Every structure is written in structure tokens, then in C-alpha cells.
Protein 1
Amino acid sequence: MVNVDTPSSLGKPRGDPRKLYPRLEWEKDAIVLGIESTAHTFGVGIASTHEPYILSSVRDTYRPKEGGIHPREAASHHARVAPHVLAEALRSAGVSIKDVDAIAVALGPGLGPALRIGATIARGLAAYYSKSLVPVNHAVAHIEIGRLYTGFHDPLVLYVSGGNTMVAAFAKKRYRVFGETIDIALGNLLDTFARDAGLAPPYVVEGMHVVDRCAVGAHEPADLPYVVKGMDVSFSGLLTAALRAWNKAKTAQEKASVCLGLREIAYSAATEVAERGLAHTRKSSVLLTGGVAASPILREKIKAMTAYHGAEAGWPPTPLAGDNGAMIAWVGLLNYLAGVTVPIEESVVRQRWRPDEVEIPWR
């Protein structure tokens, strides 16, 4: 299923790029097309130096009938839907490929086969139409699309998704990672539990994760292990304990208690490390981003925590919280304006490309 977002559905960004990125030449006319294919989503977005900045965001997500994401099946999905998603992104943005100045692509981190589909398409477009090719780090893209839409100048970042869970902040030209998961990511925890418990797919129903929906009927949370080690979190033991409790549960009420216990412990652990990061860095805002940032329950926890410390909390619009091409186009635009491009023959994918390995030239 193809999802199409335009400025009217995304809303107006709160941030002013001229203030967020004062080193860049915003008077210059530039349009960048961005391609996202790091995991289960193939997305294409269009970004411009002029308002409304994000012209379109079109994505198609691979959803296996059973089991988790197989990298080769995700790659096959991306190759199959790419022509339509690309054409729809250009059509909904009201531009042609000739109007585009550069092709941006997420070269990592992510699943190797899936990454290679996006990279191959981006290289082909750049070579055929003689466009610049711009490399983008997927994690940095999640952060910067959040900064654009919240207007936060220098936030502490809690990045939570199916493949990543980390607390980061900008210092000395890079996003430094203050804490992260030492095993599985928060989104992976929720999805794996939901799948093994028979609650999913689908994983999200009417805007809520099925674990959140399952927890609604609980009177009290089940007793499950809570593991925070300094600034790091660990979810693998929680997953094992929750599945054991689920299999022992005999009533719907007991199963709901397991969902509530899992949800509360996982979200509270993420909120705790974010709170420690906020106290350490003394930032005035917390940016929640990544696919799990769409959870209204986690948003409320982060909002309450930041209010206690006199700080602000914010997150991108829900269509831009998960993987999407618009965030790749946006950071591609920033990189392009800063002169960051890559020769096609050197545009290799990097499955474990961490955000703290990326020097940021536009801040």
C-alpha cells in the first residue's frame, strides 16, 4: 500500500532553516530527491530550499504475512514498488526529474540487500540524468527531520525504532551517542513480542501498536525485569520473560497485564536514560524520533519527564516519525548545499554506519 504525504498533510514545519542552518545559502534554488530503503520501507521524498521545504513523501512498506523481515524479500519488494513510488513522489511534488539538482540516498545503517536496492536506483538516476549523488546517514536523517518540524535548535535526541535505540546529542561537529541498547531495539522488542504472542501482524492498528492496545484492559502490570545499565538499556531479557509470562497466562486479564508490564518497563527504561542524558547535557529540549516516536504512550512519558525538568518535548509528524524518503531528501539537501557529494563508484552501502561516525558540516 502506497502512502502519499504532501505539505497539506504534513503541516508547516516549526523550524526556520535559516536559523537552524545559518551557514547554508538558502537563497539558492535547489531541489533534492531522497531515497530510503534501509529496512522494510521504500520511500522517496522531495525537498526544496524554499517553503514548504518538504514537497512530497511517498512510501510503500513491506509487510510479511508471517514472521519477521527477511532482507532478501524486503529487497524484492523495494525493487518491485520503486518505479511507482518514484513517479508518485515527483507527481505529488509537482516537479520533474529535470528540476531535481541532486539524488540523495540512505547508504546506511540497515539491511544489506534492502540498502543495495536504494543505492542502485540512486546511482542509476544520478548517472543517467547527470545529477550529483549525495550520501545520507539514516539516523542523522531521523534527527534532522525532527529538528525541522519541531524547531528545536539543540535538543537531546531519543531515537527509537525497530533497529535503533539511542540517546544522542550534538557536540564538536558530530551527534555523540550517550547511551543505546546493548542488545535489541525498542521497536524490535515490541514487534517480536507481538508476533510471537499472536497479536500481530498487523503491528499497528488505528495508530496504536498492538501491544499498547492489548494493555488497555489491564488492571496492573505483570512483574517483569527492568534493566538499565548506566546510560544503556537492555530488552532481550524483558522479551524472554514477557513471552514466558504470556504463555503461562490463562485469562485475557492476565495477558493484558503482561502487555502492560512489557510496555511500561520498556518505555520507562527509554525515558529514564533520556532523563539522565537531559540532566547530563543540560539541554532545554528533548526530540523523540524514529518509528516508535509515533506511540502516544511514549510521547506522554517523555512530555511528563521534560516538563518536570522545565524542558520542552517534541517529535516530527507521525508520517515522518518512521522511515521515509522525505528525511533523506532533507538531509540530502543540507549535504548538497554544504558541498557533500560522493562519486558513484565510491557510493558503497554501510550496514553498520553509526551517526557518531558522520561529521556534520552544516551546524
Note: Residues 193 and 360 are 36 Å apart (CA to CA).
Protein 2
Amino acid sequence: MDITVHFPIIIVLIGIFASFIIPAANLYKIKIGEIISLASIALMFVLGIYLRIQLAIDGPFTYHIGGWPAPWGIEFKVDYLGAYMVLIITGIGFLTLFYATKDLAHDLTENAQGIYYPLYILLIAAMAGMAITNDIFNLFVLLEVSLLSSVAIICIKENEATIEASLKYLILNALGSAAVLLGIALLYMITGHLNMTFIAVELQEVYPQYMNVIIAAMALFLVGFGVKAALFPMHVWLPDAHGSAPSPSSAVLSGLVIKIYTVSLIRIYFQVIPRAVITAIPIMEIVLWLAAIGIILGSMFAIVQDDIKKLLAYSSVAQIGYVFLGISLMSFTGFQGGLIHILNHAFIKAMLFLSAGVIIYSTGLRKINDLKGIGFKLPFTMTCFTLGGIAMIGIPGTNGFISKWYLALGALEAGRPIFVLVLLVSSMLNGVYYLPIIVNSFFGETPEGFDKLKIDPVPWQMKFTLLVLAFGVVFFGIFPSLPLGILESATEYIYGS
């Protein structure tokens, strides 16, 4: 038996199986749970690389769970977008967990650490499954698993702020789940299928008869996935949740979780709904303007924050707007720009949140005004933070510039130069809230008593994670051809479907 044909389901099962055995391992020693978690995600990443190689050789392929073919069985489909997301999810997920093995010991009780690892790996497994499932109800189930595990890794600190934030996250995202489920029910009602390929084929036949039903389903999907991805103005849960959670949770939530919901919406809009429906109604125009407003207002909200993690959380509201802007421009290059920003922002935002985590770990400081001179105490960490900040602004040589360059070209290709102006204004606003932190950390007048500030040594695991993320920010900024080559195939595949 060739086990490699089962790799699509094995990637998900590794995470699910590990999440069950880690609690038992933790009863003996927390360290064993850490090792199992890291080994599991590393294995998922390696299998993801194999799937990407297989994809390059054979093109997109499907896997039928239990040998039951669609439309009766559940189908996984490994295509260019799915394989791309699996690599990002498992790669960034591994790095963040490697960092977390030291940070969590400082931030959580031993019991909470024992619970954190299985929840984290379950979240990674659910997102990997969402990236490659071709069954819309299976997508919903995995979406719920990701929601519950996300809530749990926010409230695990067990203080008032995280519990309040996680409750807000749970309530609003549950409403989003209900909207998604209603949308699925409407599509099932008019097609009789849950397999996305079969739904797409059936909709091509029946859409003139059920135009209003399809539009209602699209609106429900936009609201449902929009809430989960924090598309403006449905972002209100994000700043509290990402700002108060443990730093590794903030990194994975901002860097990965909100992106997988965006990818789910892309799949439904561009691979399930007939293109004639998409172009007949102004829904992408609505998404485009919501994204543009979110880009500007998210940055303006970030400017007035005095907490470093809250600032980064509001910045994520603006940054997810870039992804939505790219896909809603309805141009090939814009679409590529939106997709590459998923990768670039994952590296940048994970590095920024984890840098903030190092500052909090080492000094206990999180108020921006207290960070003057911190660059002399933590030079490596603040150098990484500086790199992340200038990447967010879009300085050439960083991957943030590549994202903005392709989005700007996409806007021009679509004949919408106004959105180039939005990108320029956004870059200036990014500079307004990142540059003062960077400048003051190295050149600012230090507050009274700063010399006596106690600095806890930073473990090498946390520094190493920042170093790898920083390398990614520069490498993909100087050599963007690798992800762009993959994304060209993904964009052609989605536009051609």
C-alpha cells in the first residue's frame, strides 16, 4: 500500500491524534507534551512539502476519505492555494510554538501549559483541514473546531481581560458561524450537494432560477467569514482578543487564523459561486470599499493606542484589509498581491507580536511610553521589531514592499488608481505609529529609574524564532519569485475555474 496517497488526511489526523495524547503525556511531564507538539507540527510541515512537490508533478489532486467518492464521501482537494496555506500554517505554527515553549512557562501556570499545547495543535490541524477540504459542511465543522480552540488559547491566562475578550470573541464568532451555516443550507437546498465541485457544477445550471437565493447565501458568507476574518466593520472583537491573549496566541491568531477564513471565502466566491453571479452584483465592490476603509481606520485606531499589543492588534485590522483589497480588485495582479500578503503578513505580524512578547517577558513593560530607550536593553529584539515596522510601512528590501507593490499594480490593472492612493496613505499612517516607537526605543529620553529596570534574560529559543522570522521578512523581500511563482499557478487556477 502506498501510504503517500493518504498524506492529505494524515496531515490533519496527526494534529488531532497529538491533541489527544499530549494531555496524557503531560501527566508525566510537561516537557514530553512540548516535544510531541513540536514533532507533530514539524511532521505536518514535512508532509505539506511533499504535497506541494506532488502538486508540482501531477497538478491538483483529490483524496476520498474512507474510499468513498464524492458526492457521498468527504473529499480533500490539494490545489495550489490549499498547499500554499498548509505550508504557511504549519511553518509559522511550528516557529510560534517553538517560541512558546519558553514564553508560556513565564506567562501561564503549569496546568494551563498542559492544556495549551493540545489546543494549539488542534487549531493548527483544523486550519490545515480547512485549507484543503472540498466539502462545505466539513469546512464548517473544522471552522467550529478552530473557533473553540482559538477561544481557549485566548482565555487560558484566566484574568479578567482575557476572559472578557474571549467571551466577546466567542459570541460574535458564533454569530458568524450561524451565518456561514445558513449560507451552506441555502446552497444545499438548491443543489442537493455539499461537495464544492458538485455545488459549482449544479449552480452553473440553476443560477438563473435561484439568483436571489444565491445572493442571500453570498451575503451570509460575507458576514460570517467577514466577522471571523475581522473585515471592517466586523472587527470589533479582534483588538481585545489579540491584544490580551498570550503572545504566541496573538501571533498565531493575527498571523494565521484570520487568513484561513479569508481563504475559505475566496474558495466559495471564486470556485463555487458562478462567475456570472459575482459580476452581476456589486458584492466585490462592497468588499473593496470595506477593505479600503478598514485599511485607513485600522491604522488610525492603532495610532491612538498606548499598549504595544493593542497597537499591533489594530494594525491587523488594517492588514487583513490588504488581503480583501487584493481579491476584490478583480484583477490578476491584485489577486496575487492579496495572496502574497497572506504569507508576508504572517511573517511580519508573528515577528512583531513575538518581539512585543519578548519585551513583556523580559521587562514586564507593555505601555508604549515606557519603551523609550528599550533598544539599549534589548537591542536584538528591537532590531527585529524595527524590521517588522519598516516592513509594515512597505520599505523596499522587505516583503511588505512586495505586497504593496503588487496591490498597487493590481489597482492600476483594474483601472482603480484611487486604491493606490489608499495604499500610500496607509503606508504613511503605518509610519506614524511604528516610527515613533522605533526612534524612541533607540534615541528617546529614558524615563526616570530606567537604568534600574530589571531585565530577565531572553531564552535562545525566543531569539532564534525572531531571527528566522526576520530572515523570512528580508528573504521574501529580496527574492519574492518563489512564493510569486506558486501564487501565479494558484491565481491562474482560481481565475480559470
Note: The mean pLDDT is 92.
Protein 3
Amino acid sequence: MELTVLNNDAGAEAGGCSSSGCGSSGDQLSHLPDDIREKVHNHPCYSEEAHHHYARMHVAVAPACNIQCHYCNRKYDCANESRPGVVSELLSPDQAVRKVLAVAANIPQMTVLGIAGPGDPLANPERTFETFRQLTEKAPDIKLCVSTNGLALPAQVEELCKHNIDHVTITINTVDPEIGAKIYPWVFWNNRRIKGVKGAKILIEQQQKGLEMLTERGILVKVNSVMIPGVNDKHLEEVSKVVKEKGAFLHNVMPLIAEAEHGTFYGVMGQRGPTHDELQDLQDKCSGDMNMMRHCRQCRADAVGLLGEDRGDEFTMDKIEEMEIDYEAAMVKRKEIHLEIEANRKAQAAKSGEAFVALASLGTKKKELRPVLMAVATTGGGLINQHFGHASEFLIYEASPTDVRFISHRKVDLYCSGGDTCGDAETALQKNIRTLEGCEVVLCSKIGYEPWDMLEEAGIQPNGEHAMEPIEDAIAAVYKEMADAGQLDKPRQTAEAAQATA
């Protein structure tokens, strides 16, 4: 099979910030045509900037899958776990539609409905398309998306087009059947289970064909890839070039999640996932040829809410059955909320312009200044608005003399629930601080004395002075303060040095 579509010349031409998605999030998509920017403007999964303001939800209507992946076990579920393929409730299409209307009426920021499992949506076409058909009719203000492994994609492209689905995600972990055989033990194709390299070759061919068919029809395609150290980590740069050549708009390289208790092959066999540095290094290498997604939360197949939060417990079917939903009235309210969000985004963008003018002038004077990683606690809205001890994840940004760019997010264990429990769980706090290794500043709305002291001992400066300010403005301001204080003219202070000077 030939997949030699590596267009090195085209790749070289596409390098630099404008093509890589680096730079401030407001500029991430500035090089794209207006029609594409319009499609992703309020899509939290496709736009890094939109994910601060808009929510998404997944409905679990697709139980069956037509391939086996070594990182997947759909039988395992923990309600507190965010991981693709796990769900707490499997829904019928009618139940799913009622749930979508209930969520959209109560979370007006919700703009996107996706079907992503727990199996493969296109291996369950009747259930998937019945859900889309009803939502197209009853909730025309919601974007419809689907995520697939791609095996059945070419046969379903025309049906996807009928339902006005203009965003599709394909999981493509390799374009090499030999590597594919190490990830997929079998695929179910033409009523037969086909194993090894032969099965992987069929899957890859179908993925590539489906990708090209979608892009020919103007459908935006995001490609997800799971980074598996020692299996495909050295190969994903080639994957990124291939899928871009075939028309993919965005590439999302995600870390492997493999724990023995999940019961997956990789988990049981002790296959490790990548470190934060390994993942970022690969994303940076791929970004020379492709727009990279860095804000993915690897959501559950029944996730509800902003990325990074899950409000699924508020919308179980027993609770939804008791709700009275007037979706005509809800659409009016949703439109008002969306207008308010857009006004806020516009105001924040105008204010950010002032901050980045200051940063740009700093860069022209001191290009030798080193970059700095900063962690941010936020509940959304693009603001620094969360207590350090209440954060279940931190957004990681890199500030440099030329820009502020989003790097990734890092999940932590909730160690503080307030009140009498505050500060009791010292071990969890220490673990969380280790998770922030490499960061020099933590920006949050508030922080207690104990974590403050421990962060300083670890060489990380807590900062609560920018509470309720836009994230990128605050980071730019802190970076400029560090530069003015001469802190960026010398190497980063290590934890050992911080403890020695304490």
C-alpha cells in the first residue's frame, strides 16, 4: 500500500507561527479562510480560544465497535474519570435527544453535540443518524459532530452530509500497517474479524479514503492520534504530514492513558504513557506542518459542560424525566447568552491588544530573554478565577518575548474542599506541586498559606494579584514584571536553590 504523500516542499513552506498554531490563541486561526474560521469560532473542541467560553456535550448512543484497540476497554467506568470510551448511561436516540435539549436549555453556553461512543458511531449507523436527524429538526442552533475510527467512514460520508454535519474527528494513530498491528489486534470487516497487519492495512486505507472524501465535500476534519511511547511516538510526525496533505484541518496528539485497573491490554502489560515533556516535544515538532490542538481533555463519551469539567451528574435520565423543557424559549435565551459571550470576547481581545503591544516592545529590546512556563487555575471564561486548592487541572502557558501561547493542561487531584478539610491532605498537595514541575509561576484567584510556602520551596512563585483578569493579559504582565526585575536574564531557579535561599 502506498501512502507516500509526504510533501516536504509543501511542509517547509507552511512552517512558522502562522501555520503551527503557536502564538496567542487569538491569532491561532488567523491564517485560515473566513469560512473555516466561522465554522470553528464557537466550537470549544476546534478553537483553543472558544473553549474558555463555550461548552460541549457527548451522548452515548453507539455501543458497538468494529475494531479493537489495545488502549480501549469500554466495560470499565468510573464516574469521576475522564477518558474516551467510558460512559455511565447508554441512551436510545430518543433519550439522547431529550438529554441534549435539557442540557442546552440549562447550559446555554453549550454549542456542540458530539457522538463519540462508547463504541464507534459509524458502526451503529441507525442509532447515530436517528439522533442527528431528530436534533437537526428540534435544535437547529446546535452544531453536530461525530468522532470515528474511520473504518466505516467512506460508506457513511453521504449520510453525514445529509445531516448537516460539518465537523468530523477521525482517530488515526498510524499510516504504517506494521505499526498498526501493534495497536489494533483486529478489525471487523465484511463480516469477518481480520487480524494483524492485514487488518491494520484495511483500517488505514479506509481512514485515508474517508478523510479525502470529507474534505472534498468541505467538511472540517480533525485527526486524533494517541501517542504511545515505543510504538508510534517516532512515527506521528509522519502521520501529521500525511493527514495534512489529505486535507485535515487540525491534529490532536493525545497522551496514552494506560492503567492496569482499566483492564486494557496496554494497561495490563505496563505500557507507559508519555511524559508532559515528551508530549509537548512531539506536538512542537508536528506544529511546523500542521495546526495542533493542545487543549483536548480526552473527554468521556458522555461528557457535559466546559472542557475540563463534567456536569453529567446533573443530567442523568431520571433527573431529565422530571424537567419541563421549552426549547423554543431556551433558544431565545441561548441567543442572548451567546451575544453576551461574543461581546465579552471582543472586549477581552481589545484589551489583550494593549498587553501584547507591551510584550512585543519587550521582545524587540531583549530577544535573549528565556521563555517561562506558567500554570493557571480557571473555571472558564478566559479568566483567572479559581482558588488554587479547588483546581482539578491547571492550564499551562509559555510566555516569551514575542508571545504567550497555550501549551497543555495538567490534571491534579482535588486536595482541598474548603472548611475543616483545608490543608489536611498534604500528600495530595505535594503530588499536585510535582505535577507542576517546570512551571515558574502559578496564577490563581486565591491560595492558602500552606500551598503558598510549598510552591515557593519548589521554585514556583504563587500569584493571586491578577484574579478575574484575562489569562493571557495577566501572563504577559507577569512575564514583563519578571523581565523588568532581571529574573529572565539568568537560568530558572531550581527547587534545590529555592530551598537553599528560603
Note: Residues 1-27 have pLDDT under 50 and may be disordered.
Protein 4
Amino acid sequence: MSNGRFILLACLVGVALVGASTFVTNEYYVFAAYFVLQYVVLATAWNILGGYVGYVNFGTTAFLAIGLYSAAALNKWLDLPIPVLIPIAGVLCGAVGLAMGYLTIRLRGVYFTIATLALSVVVQTFITNWDYVGGSRGIYIMRPSEIPVFGTYVAYLFFLMTVLAVAAVVTARVIERSTFGFGLAAIRDDETAAAASGVPVLRLKLIAAAISGALMGMAGAPLPFYLTYVEPTSSFSLAYTVNSVAMPLVGGTTSWLGPVIGAVLLGTMQQAMTVLISSSVNLLVVGVLLVIFVIAAPNGILGLIRSIRGKKPDPETNPLAAMLVAEKRSSQ
């Protein structure tokens, strides 16, 4: 399928989702669908650097929180609308991703992962001491209960997140089928061989880090208006990092479809468990599934399907499994 037809199909799916939400009378289901779509954006963004390039990023909460707090601060200062705040958060987080990439992407394996985790700690420390957005006390966001055309503000936020999810999936698919994506795949398979073959390794990795960070930040921009109150503890929740890593690994990391499958599957399951059991069980179940898939199905659900169809999966396409194997070999 050509990129033009795929973009048209993705837009039609987005229109269908927004249209279907208008028939939902229970607002909780729209809230739950918003979170699933947010994880589609986060998982897809993580996969651009983690799945296509093979660099495991544990700094998702840093980019999400930068987008979240930049939107909250600009709303407090200038009272800008969300459609303006989203691209601003994207540009800001893209610049942070580029800077982080320049400083850390020369690292490999677990050293790069630790560096991205340290970025989250640095950003959390900064925001906790930023009095303009409430510091550790947090900040309240006032939003109108209704908005023209969309009716409720929840429906408006759901529409914006649907647009972001469609944009993220289209971006990932276009990258995957482009020469840029082929270069990223070459780096993931063998970085040294890719550099020897003339692939501009550092430049491609920096672009991937910037795009990944920008999408994560854009996903965070509507979040303060969704929650109406944000504070550092919940904004830097471990659940965002674990889910953004687990969802692509469960679905499959070599295709744009894998993060979407993982986000819809795990996101829906978490929302169901929140209602039926407890929200505290979510992270435990996701962690168990992550361990099972890394050990038993390194290429995720898409890899299992390819294996059933008779195609032999490559275990090193899973970035987390590949990193663990590389660390084991280096320690021997």
C-alpha cells in the first residue's frame, strides 16, 4: 500500500473513532479510550528509536513531563489554546531529544539506557523545584465544561488525541518505508557495518531521537487539561516508562503495527483491571507480560504470527533482548 493510501486509511479510522465516540453516553469509556490512544502515541514514539534503531530509551517520562509542564506553564502565562500548545511542546521536546541524542547516543546498550533514565531524574528534580508550575505541590488547570462544535471538553480532548495518534502512526509508517527507515534498520542490525557502508549513523540516530522525543512531548501537552491537576509524582509515574517499553515489545518492534497492537491490547486490559480489580495491579501484570514476551516471544505478537506462517523470526530484532544478549556476551 502506498503512503498516500495509508494516510487516507488512517484518517478514515480516526474519523470513525471520533464518530463512534459521539454515540457513547458513559463518559468513562471516552476517558479510557483517550488513555489507550495516548499510549498508541507513546509506544509508537518509543519504537522509532527503540525498535527501528535498537536503542532502549527509559526516558519517556522526561519527554512526556516536559510537554505536560510546558503546556501548563504557557496556558498559565498566555492562555494559549491546546492546538497551539501541542506543536510548541513538540518543538521543545524535539530539541531536548536532539540534545540528549548528541550527548548520549554515542553510548550503546545498557549505558545509553541508564543515561536516558538519568534524564528523567534531572527533569523531575527541575520541575519539583519550579515554583511557577507549583513545584512539588502541583498545579490546577481550569478548563471549560463545554466547547463549541464538540460539546463536552472530554470529546474535544479525545478528538485531539485521535489526531495525534493518527499522526504518530503515519509518521512511523512513512519512516519505515523510506530510505531513512532503511538506514535505521541497518544501524539496528549492525551499527559498525552500517557506518562502513556509508550510512550516516550519527545523523540518522539524532533525527530519530528528535522525532521520538517530539511525539512523546506532543502526547503530554493535552494531559494537564485531561487531568485538571498535575504534580511531579504522578507525572513521572513509572507506569509511563514501563508501558511505553512493554507495548512495542509485546506487539513487535520492527513494524508500525506492533506498538499499535501492544498499546490497544495492554491499554484496554489495564483499563479493565482498574475497574474490575485495582489500578495497583496494572504494573505487575504488564511487568509479567514483558518478561514472558522477552523470554518466550522476543519478536512479539507480530513475530509469533510470522513464525506460524512459516517465517523464521530473528531474536535480535527485539532491542531489549538484543541488549541483554550483548551484555551477557561482554561479561563472558
Note: The longest strand covers residues 139-140.
